[in-house]
Design goal:
Elements (H helix, E strand, L loop, with lengths): L1 E4 L5 H6 L6 E5 L2 E6 L2 E8 L2 E4 L3 H11 L6 H6 L6 H9 L10 H10 L5 H15 L2 E3 L5 E3 L4 H5 L3 H5 L6 H13 L5 H5 L3 H8 L7 H10 L11 H10 L6 H4 L3 H13 L4
Antiparallel strand pairs: 1-5, 2-3, 3-4, 4-5, 6-7
Helix pairs in contact: 4-15, 5-12, 11-12
Length: 270
């Protein structure tokens, strides 16, 4: 077990932030996560976080996954003091971190996220993993399912994807899986691209529009200048930033600030 102290880390806020759909509460102050082919439990008590894994696994997987080496307090302290809305949003969601998630998983997850809510997205992905993902057993004997490979989803029947509650998104997932499988889009190449180039490449995939492409860039490629705009964000921009969000002021941290705004508005605080 690895004990870490961090003031800008909230497993609860990360879990509910709309960027990660395979992390959930599994007990009091305890959270379970499946990512990178691994199963992890986290216990948090205020600023004290306990990662139930080996030091090697923490160093090679989870430290990067949770972006533990980024100084989020510095980013929050850099917010314009006159922007009381953004300062309040950041203070409210200060425990959110931008995760370094798997590119393929985020492509499928955010295709499924369209016209959907977080609870239903979680259910869709759980069903998809149980049906098409590889079953594994954790060191503690807990059974879990890896995220399905492009091949497994490309070979799935569309009607079976409908049975996973994907609805019209079933075709998008199926066609995108085939595109990846046949190397129409090279994910390894996308990982090395800059934000604008990667976004343009992702837009070639079936069912991916601007907002979904930005989500993938932010939550998988860690392009923190990506700024996904959904209903929540567009509402805030119209009311709080009628002259436009000050991207030039925040540059590469704009995507992190977007998450604070999204979480703040999602919970009815704005």
């Amino acid at each position: 077990m690895i004990a870490v102290q961090c003031k800008n880390f909230s497993a609860l806020q990360i879990c509910l932030s709309g960027q990660c759909f395979r992390m959930e509460a599994c007990g009091e102050d305890r959270y379970c996560l499946v990512a990178a082919g691994k199963y992890l439990q986290i216990v948090q008590n205020n600023d004290n976080i306990l990662f139930e894994c080996t030091q090697e696994e923490y160093d090679t997987i989870w430290k990067n996954y949770f972006d533990m080496e980024t100084d989020y307090a510095k980013i929050i302290n850099g917010i314009d003091a006159d922007d009381t809305y953004l300062a309040s949003a950041a203070a409210y969601g200060k425990g959110i971190r931008i995760l370094n998630q798997d590119l393929w998983e985020m492509i499928v997850s955010f295709i499924i996220s369209q016209q959907n809510n977080i609870k239903r997205i979680r259910k869709c992905i759980r069903l998809l993993c149980e049906r098409y993902g590889e079953k594994k057993i954790s060191a503690d004997g807990i059974a879990y399912f890896d995220f399905p490979t492009p091949q497994s989803l490309a070979c799935a029947r569309i009607e079976d994807l409908y049975a996973c509650n994907l609805g019209y998104r079933s075709r998008y997932v199926h066609e995108t899986a085939n595109s990846i499988l046949h190397k129409d889009i090279d994910l390894e190449a996308v990982r090395k691209m800059d934000y604008k180039t990667a976004k343009a490449e992702l837009l070639k995939l079936c069912g991916i529009g601007t907002k979904v492409a930005d989500c993938i860039c932010l939550f998988a490629l860690h392009k923190t200048d990506a700024f996904p705009k959904d209903t929540h964000i567009n509402k805030v921009l119209a009311v709080k930033y009628p002259d436009g969000f000050p991207f030039e002021k925040y540059g590469g941290n704009s995507g992190i600030l977007q998450q604070y705004i999204f979480y703040y508005d999602l919970n009815g605080m704005g």
